[in-house]
Specification:
The chain has 196 residues and is mainly alpha-helical. It is built from seven helices and two strands; from the N terminus they run H-H-H-H-E-H-H-E-H. It folds into two domains: 149 residues, no CATH class; 39 residues, no CATH class. It has a two-stranded antiparallel ribbon with strand order 1-2.
Length: 196
């Protein structure tokens, strides 16, 4: 089993090693994490673009919102005939919603293994030693204190270096912030109607 993990690490080293080698701060590879988050965001955004019918998804979400609004209005008005009509339509809407959820799972299934391999490599590479010092406003706006509180309760949680400044975060939190931001930009650039 150890041989498989070693093979994964070696394969990932050949892909991401050159990026890490060219990082201006190899002992604190913040730029490498940013580049990896861009690559992962690009892969997941492309998968979403081509594995999910975005127009159909937007149409279904719009229909669902309109249905919920009409259903709420019918309940508030107390119109039994309208409520029955809405309840009959609810079955159809639930089927559409289920189909929509299945479509949204396709890209996740297609990208899950590569992303897990990237995470595995990051966890055991020099990237895991990264410490990012955030401005206090960003530190609180991204709810980092909550993650710092919850993190130690999770087995295998890699805490930030205890000697790091108070506003610092580790590689995983930095990766999450970068990935979320890059995904939003890429989705906008690729013409997605819906947000992240």
């Amino acid at each position: 089993m150890a041989g498989i993990f070693d093979s994964v690490i070696n394969a990932m080293n050949s892909i991401f090693g050159p990026i890490l080698a060219h990082d201006p701060t190899p002992n604190n590879p913040i730029l490498t994490i940013f580049i990896i988050s861009f690559i992962v965001s690009l892969i997941t955004t492309i998968a979403n673009k081509y594995l999910v019918d975005q127009k159909e998804l937007a149409k279904n979400q719009k229909e669902m919102k309109e249905f919920q609004k009409k259903f709420k209005e019918a309940q508030q008005s107390g119109n039994e005939k309208e409520i029955k009509k809405m309840k009959d339509k609810q079955v159809e809407m639930m089927q559409k919603n289920s189909k929509m959820m299945t479509q949204q799972f396709k890209p996740m299934i297609a990208t899950m293994v590569p992303i897990l391999l990237v995470f595995y490599w990051m966890r055991f590479s020099a990237v895991a030693k990264a410490v990012v010092i955030l401005p206090p406003v960003v530190y609180y706006c991204t709810l980092v204190p909550v993650f710092h509180f919850i993190g130690p309760l999770i087995p295998g949680y890699g805490a930030v270096n205890p000697h790091a400044p108070a506003w610092s975060i580790g590689w995983l939190m930095w990766y999450m912030i970068c990935t979320f931001g890059m995904s939003q930009i890429l989705r906008k650039f690729m013409g997605f109607e819906q947000g992240f």
